[in-house]
């Protein structure tokens, strides 16, 4: 990516910045989803995290396309995986109501 943007310049800030940010959100999802305390609250936070992550991945793909089309294509399986994981997270959150809430 750096070679495609001719080193570190103003054009080279956004694509790697988006990538690093989406990696941080990806790493945050696992402890939020698998937290044992406050299960439904953590699931809602995990769902919020993965929806934001989905948006960041779309922005990353959009910013990478003019720079490196191969790198953009390599993000598409990850995007498909996020669609699956976000739908599963939503279904698990929906099927596990908050503690103390009457069904």
UniProtKB/TrEMBL annotation:
Family: Belongs to the TspO/BZRP family.
Domain of life: Eukaryota
Subcellular location: Membrane
Alphabetical UniProt keywords: Membrane, Transmembrane, Transmembrane helix
Matching InterPro entries: TspO/MBR-related_sf (IPR038330), TspO_MBR (IPR004307)
Any one GO cellular component localisation term in the record: mitochondrial outer membrane
Transmembrane regions listed in the UniProt entry: 46-65, 71-93
Pfam families: TspO_MBR
Species of origin: Varanus komodoensis
Signal peptide: none
Keyword Cell division: no
Topology class, membrane: Multi-pass membrane protein
Protein name: Translocator protein 2
Keyword flag Transmembrane helix: yes
């Amino acid at each position: 990516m750096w070679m495609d943007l001719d080193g570190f310049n103003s054009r080279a800030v956004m694509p790697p910045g988006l990538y690093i940010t989406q990696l941080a959100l990806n790493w945050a999802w696992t402890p939020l989803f698998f937290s044992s305390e406050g299960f439904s609250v953590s699931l809602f936070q995990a769902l919020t995290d993965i929806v934001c992550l989905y948006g960041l991945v779309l922005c990353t793909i959009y910013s990478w396309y003019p720079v490196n089309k191969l790198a953009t294509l390599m993000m598409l399986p990850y995007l498909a995986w996020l669609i699956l994981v976000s739908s599963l997270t939503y279904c698990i959150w929906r099927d596990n109501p908050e503690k103390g809430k009457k069904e």
